[in-house]
User: Which sequence fits this backbone?
């Protein structure tokens, strides 16, 4: 019996085959789930549709998560075509480069709002709509980063957004717990993706990661896919409101271990 046999997963955030959302979609498909995909804009369709076809997905809809009407129309289609859903995956974030570069104190008001809207509020909006299609046993997942807790140079406003996202996971977990729905986050180590290429400090983070992390190994989207499949399966039935680190142990360190001690 596969982990997600009989479950339907609605996954937001596939931009291309490097996307974490795609790693999750592939693994959930391998684990027996019926997968439905949503992507941000029509410009991405030519990349996303062939990926969807490769795993037999027919529900492939664009939805800009800053737009409530687009969200409602997507969930109306999901209700008609999928009926109920068991899993929601939110792998979405965005910030203008200007608001991540430079000094944190210079974050613009508009840039702050946009970052919070796309990277935090969208999870609450998707969760609210998804909950109406979920039965008890449903599971929701978002993607976060350790910059929510510790300062990473030039992660800036996105670090604040990830802190807000993790707090939203806890509030949603309590709110939706009464409906038997679980809500969790995976905190991923650095993975080369489109969104990551827009983070000014990413190259340095990536370069130094496998030297510092206890397991000395970089993270792949498949590592995230496996953890996501478990977290959204009935095997994790009593886990909610958590942030699960898939980061080769990076977050446990207070200071990197010098070469002479290894
Ligand atoms: P990605 O670029 O493949 O995915 C980001 C997605 O957000 C894209 O599909 C993009 O289209 C979507 N998006 C942006 N604005 C949107 C909007 N208005 N409406 C709908 N969708 C929108 O990059 P990724 O690295 O796979 O990012 C997925 C998630 O993982 C993000 O939350 C990111 O912060 C998080 N994450 C990434 C890393 C990493 O190193 N790559 C590490 C930790 C957490």
Assistant:
């Amino acid at each position: 019996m596969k982990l997600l046999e009989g479950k339907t997963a609605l996954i937001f955030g596939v931009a291309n085959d490097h996307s974490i959302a795609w790693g999750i979609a592939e693994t959930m498909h391998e684990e027996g789930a019926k997968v439905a995909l949503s992507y941000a804009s029509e410009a991405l369709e030519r990349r996303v549709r062939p990926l969807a076809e490769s795993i037999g997905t027919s529900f492939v809809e664009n939805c800009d998560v800053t737009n409530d009407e687009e969200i409602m129309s997507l969930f109306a289609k999901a209700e008609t075509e999928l009926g109920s859903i068991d899993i929601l995956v939110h792998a979405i974030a965005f910030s203008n480069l200007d608001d991540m570069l430079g000094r944190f104190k210079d974050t613009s008001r508009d840039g702050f709002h946009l970052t919070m809207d796309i990277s935090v509020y969208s999870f609450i909006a998707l969760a609210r709509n998804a909950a109406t299609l979920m039965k008890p046993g449903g599971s929701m997942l978002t993607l976060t980063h350790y910059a929510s807790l510790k300062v990473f140079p030039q992660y800036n406003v996105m670090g604040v957004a990830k802190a807000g996202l993790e707090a939203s996971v806890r509030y949603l977990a309590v709110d939706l717990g009464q409906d038997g729905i679980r809500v969790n986050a995976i905190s991923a180590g650095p993975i080369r993706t489109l969104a990551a290429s827009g983070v000014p400090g990413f190259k340095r983070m990536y370069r130094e990661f496998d030297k510092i992390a206890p397991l000395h190994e970089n993270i792949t989207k498949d590592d995230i896919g496996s953890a996501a499949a478990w977290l959204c399966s009935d095997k994790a039935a009593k886990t909610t409101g958590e942030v699960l680190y898939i980061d080769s142990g990076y977050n446990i360190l207070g200071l990197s271990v010098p070469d002479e001690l290894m």
